[in-house]
Amino acid sequence: MKAPEGLKLFDNGRRIDGRRPDELRPIRIDAGVLKRADGSCYLEWGGNKVMAAVYGPREVHPRHDSNPTRAIVRCRYNMAAFSVGERKRPGPDRRSQEISKVTSEALAPVILTQLYPRTAVDIFVEIIEAEAGSRCAGLTAASVALADAGIPMRGLVAACAAGKVDDHVVLDLGREEDNYGDSDMPMAVIPKTGEVVLLQMDGHFTDEQFETAFDLAHRACYEIFELQKDALRRKYKDVVPQGEDEGEEGQEGGFEPVEEPNAAEEIVERER
């Protein structure tokens, strides 16, 4: 989209909203905000407001969709009709179907689906208010909701985007940068292993710009990972005895019991 005449997205080393090129918008994450879901998360990221809920593992309907060897992971990403400036037509559209698909495919590798054959893990992501980067915000919230549901995972998934505006590579595009910028590259990472589980790109980068954007987004995912862990710690600080959520000295702290493979091994042992 062509920028309005006179609009400067980048000037004197600062972006249109005053941020540095490598600066994230403010992020707030709260876990366990819905009583009737198995797991949930509310996330605010800049102008995005996102609610994520998880149900399952539970019986698959219709049954012929089930997998006899593992659970299936289903995601429904939806933007509320009032989430944008002009009322959006309710119901799924092509964009929401695409984001639902890539979100479920990014989260499926971290869930120990082999523990729950013939079941489904259902993830619902509702965008209550949308700015730029709602797919990364939704994916980040969904990951926290899965952990809140107690589903065994290899790690949390954190997502962030980098892009290019006025030929400058910047992190976490805002609304004007997303609308009038040159490129956008959402990424999702499992910080515990460093694996990239989502990488998309809209626009063009030079090789050098791509490497810069990749590094910015990859590092930002680790910052977001800390916020995810903090949200889970705050939720369970009254449940987990003091000191047990700190981890061993020299190890990474955090709400790790639901993510550790050992937890899954114990479940397998009990099933025998």
What is this entry, summarized?
The chain is an alpha+beta fold and 272 residues long. β6, α1 and β7 form a beta-alpha-beta unit. The radius of gyration is 19 Å and the shape is globular.
Number of H/I helices: 5
Portion in strands? 25-35%
Compressed to H and E, one letter per element, the order equals: EEEEEEHEHEEHEEHH
N-end to C-end Cα span: 58 Å
**Unreliable runs, pLDDT <50, ≥5 residues?**
246-264
Task: Give a structural overview.
- It is a single chain.
- This protein is an alpha+beta fold and 272 residues long.
- The protein has helices spanning 94-107, 134-148, 175-180, 207-236, 261-271; strands spanning 10-11, 14-15, 27-31, 39-45, 48-59, 72-79, 119-129, 158-165, 168-171, 183-190, 195-199.
- The strands form 3 sheets. It has a 5-stranded mixed beta sheet. A 4-stranded antiparallel beta sheet has the order 9-8-10-11.
- A hairpin with a 4-residue loop joins β10 (183-190) and β11 (195-199).
- α1 packs across α2 and α2 packs parallel to α4.
- It is globular.
